[in-house]
Amino acid sequence: MNEVNPPKAVESIVETIGNTPMVKLHTFSDLKGKYYAKLESFNPGGSSKDRIGITIVEQAEKEGLLKPGGTIIEATSGNTGLGLALLGIKKGYNVILIMPDKMSPAKMNVVKAMGCEVIVCPTEVEPDDPRSYYSVAKKVAKDTPGSFYANQYHNDANPLAHYLSTGPEIWKQTQGKITHFIAGLGTGGTISGTAKFLKEKNPDIKIIGVDPLGSILAHFHRTKNTDIDAKGYKVEGVGEDIIPSNVDFDLIDHVVTVTDKESFDWTWRLAREDGMLVGGSSGLAVAGANLYFEDNQQDEVLTVILLPDTGERYIDKIFSEAWLRSNGFLEKITTLKELVFSKAANLPPLITLSTQDTLIDAYDKIDKFKINQVLIETKDKYIQLLTKSVVYNALLSDQPHNTKIGKLELIDVNFMDIETDYTIAKVALVEKEVIIITRSESPIGIITRQDLIDNTNIRESDL
Q1: Which of 49, 199, 234, 317 is catalytic?
Q2: Which residues is 353 bridged to in the sheet?
Q3: Cα angle vertex 427, ends 424, 430, to 5°?
Q4: Which of 26, 194, 200, 442 is the most buried if burial means most Cβ atoms within 10 Å?
Q5: At residue 252, does pLDDT exceed 90?
Q6: Is-contact 49 80, C-beta < 8 A?
Q7: H-type helices in 73-183, by residue range?
Q8: Does domain 49-149 have CATH number 1.10.645.10?
Q9: In the annotation, is 142 catalytic?
């Protein structure tokens, strides 16, 4: 245990923003030099974007753009929205956030919990399309009296925040010995503001940007033109299909392009090898650092990699094997045994009730485990299926909550031995929603149509 030295008590959660820790990375043990993670998840809102909320709001107040009781509007992947929400809570502003639909539900739920209104827009549209989250944010700002559009992509208060805080912190934490700074590319505020401060201290410090494959920023850095179309990618909070004015490309020495799979593989490695539960943009930054130094091995490097946010908002995506598998980032399961046991960490192998249990018991079980059916064991140990739709229909038709399950519509189910060929199970699930898997004739688990869909990258496969 470290010596007890807690920070002083403060008046507002906003005062806890910044001064995040720097921790040595052990995932890079094969590379020469020293590598440290700047853990921005320690900010109160869980990301580096908390920092820019302060400067954006305070600068808008000074310029008379944001008045008491006003509304802050922003196009955001979620983290900037939460940073602005913290300021809104402190200062009494309403906050309306426009978010693309690829963002995790957890992010949307967090900002809603903080009192924000959320408008969701399609991701796969051009930036100037009226449905894009950029366009919708501008329209909402125009139509909302007393509003201020934060516009993090082109607001110089964004890089200013990192020039005033992130850069000085890193310089002090490394005692001025930093040789390389690595961060993901997005709105440009983090890398540009931090780089400006560091290069003023030592022009020889190398600034490495990391861009997801599909973004146009790496291409623009190399060619200074935008003659390339952005492609879709899954990692959140980095990359762009526009060129934000906040990205100062002159300060960036090199840009590495990283795939989604590389980002997510390194995100898992950070959790398992360094105990850092961080988001996919952190995995992207570390993957980029690894690629860069594989080609640029140096003995005396002290590298700081900025890890932008917490991984808690991606539990149902990046840290879900089903999500990774359905999006093609994990190898497909090819046997029933693998499929049954891959579910063990998320659900009990069998979720059952008896015919003597009640309608409300069934509802509670479905709601608790977020499932679409419950197995019902009869008096003679025969197993049938009660679906969520039957339960909901019974509740909506005002059947008594104490109605015995035996009086509801139950469905017969098929049984299949765990050694059965996977393709036979797929054929069987065309006819039945659920198959009970047995070993030595004893039920040990179930598989559903959803399990097969989760095991398939639908866009690249015909099942």
Answers
A1: 49
A2: 376
A3: 150
A4: 194
A5: yes
A6: yes
A7: 79-91, 105-113, 133-143, 157-164, 166-173
A8: no
A9: no
Q: What pLDDT sits at residue 463?
A: 47
Query: Which residue type does 52 have?
Result: I
Task: Give the pLDDT confidence score for residue 307 in this predicted structure.
Answer: 98
Asked, colleague to colleague, whether 49-149 and 332-460 share their fold, the answer is: no
Place of tokens 């485990």: 369
Q: Which residue type is seen at 156? A: D
Domain ranges of the chain: 13-43+157-314, 49-149, 332-460
Buried/exposed 145-156: b ≥16 CB within 10 Å, e otherwise: eebbbbbbbebb
Q: CA 192, 196, 199, 201: dihedral to nearest 10 degrees? A: -140
Cα 103 from Cα 237, distance rounded (Å): 9
pLDDT value for 321:
85
Nearest to 47 by CA among 217, 161, 147, 148: 161
CATH level 2 (architecture), domain 332-460: Roll (3.10)
Query: Which DSSP letter does residue 22 get?
Result: E
- What pLDDT is recorded for position 345? 57
CA distance 164 to 403: 65
Rounded to the nearest integer, the mean pLDDT of the chain is: 91
Read off the pTM: 0.85
pLDDT in tens, 298-357: 778 999 999 999 999 999 899 988 889 888 898 888 888 888 877 655 567 788 999 999
Residue range 13-43+157-314 in CATH 3.40.50.1100: yes
For the chain, percent of residues with pLDDT exceeding 70: 97
- Paired strand residues for 414: 435
Distance CA 375, CA 352 (A): 5
Q: What is the DSSP letter of 124?
A: S
Which residue is it, tokens 């960036």? 252
